[in-house]
Amino acid sequence: MFASENGLRGDPRLKGISEAIRVVPHFPKPGIMFQDITTLLLDHKAFKDTVDIFVDRYRDMGISVVAGTLSLSLSHTHTHTHTHTEKDFGFREFTIRIIISHLVGARFFLLSAHCVIWYIIGVEARGFMFGPSIALAIGAKFVPLRKPKKLPGEVISEQYELEYGSDCLEMHIGAVQPGEHVLVIDDLVATGGTLSAAIKLLERVGAEVVECACVIGLPEFKDVMELFMNLRSMCTCCQFLHLTANAPGQDATGQCRAN
Ligand SMILES: O=P(O)(O)OC[C@H]1O[C@H](OP(=O)(O)OP(=O)(O)O)[C@H](O)[C@@H]1O
Ligand SMILES: Nc1ncnc2[nH]cnc12
To answer: Nearest ligand, CA of residue 29?
Structure first.
């Protein structure tokens, strides 16, 4: 599983994070087991631990140092190749990673590549709850991807399908420049449609999507792999939590269980 693959095995933070996420059955429509991270936000320790896991990851990649010299000019950018180790998340070659994560039922998804991140991209609305904290901590900029008609400036749009409908993401033109390296943050990946749309949007403006990271992944959505494989950016899906929406041991009040 992701935790053991990525140096988080036995990490005491995982249980607290897992238990702080509520599952609300049949919301927003019958049959959906809604993973509610608002209860995580009420738990200071669990919330901080969640952000810290992301920050630890990117700090280990030296991103805070590079972000300190962040420049919109490509000529001033220091880019390095980062070789992931088992210790710092254990990322392997893309295809292998996808297969492994799906075999174990991935719950924490992280799309990976090998360079320095300049921008954190948050997906409305729940990506905004984690993205800015991570961006501040590692010294990166934060760019919001918003739902339609929310951004006042000129935008580019990308439509996508959701577990319970369809939607559209928009980003200000000029918010990210061609060649810039970005990290996409969201709370959860289900079908992968939202993250795929985010990546496509960023690719259309010439950005390099270094990674996408979510707190929760729903392993029952197998087609997420195919979606990511069709993208230009390097992507993978991994887990550090094991929260199963309708598994035994989870009651109707929405209590989750850890690995
Ligand atoms: O992997 P997917 O199938 O695309 O689903 C995941 C997305 O769904 C949820 O957002 P939602 O669209 O419900 O919007 P919200 O954050 O505004 O509630 C969640 O926060 C992710 O962004
Ligand atoms: N089951 C779920 N819980 C919370 N957010 C979601 N977005 C898509 N599916 C979801």
So the answer is: 2
Could you report the per-residue pLDDT of 87-119, keeping only the tens digit for each?
233 232 232 333 333 333 333 444 444 456 678
Based on DSSP, count helices (H) and strands (E) in the chain, helices before strands.
9, 9
Count of C-beta atoms within a 10 Å radius of residue 161: 15
Please give the Cα distance from 50 to 86 (Å, whole number).
20
Stated pTM of the model: 0.76
Q: What tens digit of pLDDT does each residue of 111-160 get?
A: 444 456 678 888 899 999 999 999 889 888 899 999 999 999 999 999 98
Cβ-proximal residues to 7 (8 Å cutoff; 6+ apart), any chain = 86, 87, 88, 89, 90
Q: 61-73+118-230 maps to which CATH number?
A: 3.40.50.2020
Q: Whose CA is nearest to atom 1 of ligand 2?
A: 34
Active site residue 97: no
Instruction: Name the residue ranges covered by the structural domains of the chain.
Output: 61-73+118-230
In whole angstroms, give the CA distance from residue 25 to residue 31. 7
Distance CA 62, CA 94 (A): 22
141 token code pair: 């900029």
Q: Residue 192: name the closest of 168, 158, 218 by CA.
A: 218
> Does residue 126's CB lie within 6 angstroms of at least one atom of ligand 1?
yes
3 state DSSP class of 50? helix
- Does the predicted interface ipTM exceed a cut of 0.90? yes
